[in-house]
Amino acid sequence: MSTMLDPGGRARPETGGPATTQALADVPQARRCPVRAPRTTQRDGQQGLQRDLRPDQPRHDQPRHDQPRHDQPRQDRPRGDRARHDQARPDQSREQRRDPPRDGRRDGNRDPRRAPSPIVQVSLDGNRPAWLVLGYRELHFVLSSPEIFTCDPRHRARRGPVSPDWAPLPGAGRRPSLLHTDGDEHRRRYRAINDVLSDVDVFLLRARAEAVTDSVIDEFAGTGSADLISAFAHQVPALALASLCGPDDLGADEIADDLVALVDNRSDAVRGHRRLLDRLRGLLADRIDEPSDDIISTLVDHPEELTDDEIVEDLAVVLGLGMRTVTAWIGTSLRLLLTDGSFALELSGGRRSVMQALTQVLWEDTPVQVAAGRWAARDIQLGGQHIQAGDMIALGLAAANSDPRVTGTGTNSAHLSFGHGAHRCPYPAQEIAEVITRTAIEVLLDRLPNIRLAVPAEALVWRRTAWNRALTALPVRFSPV
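Below the sequence we write its predicted structure tokens.
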């Protein structure tokens, strides 16, 4: 059984209607979060991470005669496994009677004991084999075991050269960033980034994000219509994150342009990453000569004494991943508010806070759906699969968050959207992302209270990529102000 990604890592169709990555969508309904109904994703012609059912697998939509009918009187209704044993056919063996019916359901979901393998074999870009981890428990183990599942690509099995233009290369290729280090080296660089981001004043950041959001809204507030992805969700996080690198007159505004290009031009992701690195090198040289009150100057003076290359690479990781995450987080949250009437009503009525809404989005539509960048350091059995040393591991964050063995709500932050373990997104970075996202949405709803979707919800189009969950556009209308 294998899964295919089309060349370039694209997985979603450019057709109307929400659609998740095929690798995650093809997991049966048991793997979807029970809080909301799963999105319809089975479409003719859809490509990407595809998992084919074996001919001998049962269809779960076909009724079985040995299932209890819920229209029977209570006293006649079979209860539990003992009732099924009592009603078992005479020709069934004791082993057959011991297990519940294959298509039995519990609490509206399939029995987790019959769920498919939490780890499946996939093919990235059609010819790069990998193991996609879908189960919450299994992914938690992978992220918690860097000595078994390393981030160092030197452990990668030699299966042909990797193209320098391969889309996931910034996350899966061999680069000297903290993403691809383990042990003491990783702890040293992680500690420096964590300390520098901890020094960011979140109250000052919120005020700066409010000013940035107001200035962005001013650009289209008088028109009565806008695309909230290109005109808002791209602009606000880019300007807010760039402000961490110093004032605009010191070159930080150019960082914002690079960050927008990084998420806006998916086909040029590798070259966009290189442009960001070049820009950061120039800013670093300026800060060494003339320090400023920003994260670049703070990293230069940090006791861990990072080299120039380490500072540039690690800042590129923080800004690049932060931009992708916040952009998708804002866009997906706004889509939910504009398309889910009950959700918007709970939010406006005070029964749900904005932060609860944002957390719910992380459970159901996490910005990073699949992440590459782990390799097995030795042979291991996991999730019923035999993983060999050197095999690539793809992290199915969205599928793990939808695992029926866990229940995610707006008040539960046990999701894996920010990772887990030694390589988890630093808490200060999570806080920065939350402040920017929350501020952007609150200011937008305050400035444009009657904002509404300009197209049918089913006409919205998701980016064709297996890695991120992001809309191509979110057209809206509102009263000009």
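Residues 308-339 form the longest helix (32 residues).
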